[in-house]
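Appendix B. One record, verbatim.
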Amino acid sequence: MADEKYILLIEDDRETSSTLSGVLQGKGYNVTTAPNGVEGQKLLKAARPDLVITDMMMPQMGGFPILEFINSMDDPPKVIMITANEGGRHKAYAEMLGVINYLRKPFAMEAMLEAVRSAFEESDDDEKKSAKSGPLKRSKATRKKSAK
């Protein structure tokens, strides 16, 4: 099942990007990387990933503008944010923008893999629920978007 899932990794640190990408690919995920938010936004428009893992602090465009862009999408992917920032306000803002997991660097690779597994399990559960509820019931993401 993992090989069916497409992850967009937006991370400016080459070593971190390479390590995360390698580990995720080793687990069977299809991973594309972007070195900054501008490139990440282009890939989001073109490729429609199942999950986005984004750094918070990057050159050209950081993680928060990426989250705002994702929130404007019709069917937004789930997002995991990674950061070296210790600030609690940033975490609260990220969660307000819909981040499903917020990992502070350095983190254990198992913590990242668990966050990814959890994101995909939640997505699978959401799909099952919407299939059972029929066409008149809308997903949480759709209801949230309609409320804007």
